[in-house]
Amino acid sequence: MAYTYDPENIFAKILRGEIPNTTVLETDHALAFRDIAPQAPEHVLVIPKGPYVSIDHFAVEASADEIVDYMRAVGQVCQQLGVDLGSGGAGFRAIANAGSNGVQDVPHLHVHIVAGRPLGPMLVRD
Ligand code: AMP
């Protein structure tokens, strides 16, 4: 089974400039923007510019340049928000939902950086 990418997903439209966003950071291979429905005082999405459905797709098929640039972008966003541990920030949660069990709504890889308050347990038990 190969990964299939839907170029009409909403984040692809953001990358093409068809839908506005509140950009926090742009690099060669990544874009970070504020989530439209923030779940904490800080809620930023970091996406690769390439057509990757999920973090496993990206990890398996992206180039080394893309992976390095993307991971550095995640770190830079945390620094920009002042939540990175390196500068004594209070921390954050990085979340990458994937597929149906992961409850991924938008089929373009995005890491949520959620911060600004204590975030509670990682998962709520059923
Ligand atoms: P997920 O369930 O992990 O796929 O998360 C998708 C996220 O995308 C949700 O937190 C949405 O609030 C967010 N979202 C959807 N549309 C937009 C948009 N146009 N701009 C910014 N964030 C969006």
Rg result:
14 Å
User: What molecules are bound to this protein?
Assistant: adenosine monophosphate
Shape: globular
**Order of strands across the widest beta sheet?**
1-2-3-5-4
Overall pLDDT score? 97
| CATH homologous superfamily assignment | HIT-like
By secondary-structure content and strand pairing, the structural class works out as alpha+beta
Q: How much strand?
A: 15-25%
Q: Which stretches of 5+ consecutive residues score pLDDT under 50? A: none
List the quaternary state of the chains: single chain
User: What letter string, H or E per element, gives the SSE order?
Assistant: HEEEHHEE
Your description of this structure?
This protein is of the alpha+beta class. It has one domain (10-115): HIT family, subunit A, CATH 3.30.428. Helices cover 25% and strands 20% of the residues. The protein has three helices and five strands; from the N terminus they run H-E-E-E-H-H-E-E. The protein has helices spanning 10-15, 55-61, 64-81, and strands at 23-26, 30-34, 42-48, 92-95, 111-115. A five-stranded antiparallel β-sheet has the order 1-2-3-5-4, covered by helices on one side. The longest helix has 18 residues, at 64-81. The radius of gyration is 14 Å and the shape is globular. The N and C termini lie far apart (31 Å). 23% of the residues are buried. The mean pLDDT is 97. The protein binds adenosine monophosphate (AMP). Residues 10, 19, 21, 35-37, 45, 97, 103-106 line the site of adenosine monophosphate.
